[in-house]
Amino acid sequence: MSQPHTEKPYEKPQGERRGLVIINTGNGKGKTTAALGLLVRAQGRGLRTRLLQFIKHESANFGEHRSLKALNIPFAGLGDGFSWTSKDLDHSKELAQMGWKEAREAILSGDYDLLVLDEVTYPINWGWIDVQEVLETLKARPHMLHVVLTGRNAPQELVEYADTVTEMTPIKHAFDAGIPAQKGIEH
Amino acid sequence: MSQPHTEKPYEKPQGERRGLVIINTGNGKGKTTAALGLLVRAQGRGLRTRLLQFIKHESANFGEHRSLKALNIPFAGLGDGFSWTSKDLDHSKELAQMGWKEAREAILSGDYDLLVLDEVTYPINWGWIDVQEVLETLKARPHMLHVVLTGRNAPQELVEYADTVTEMTPIKHAFDAGIPAQKGIEH
Question: Which residues of B carry out catalysis?
Answer without folding.
Answer: 27, 29, 31-33, 41, 82, 84, 119
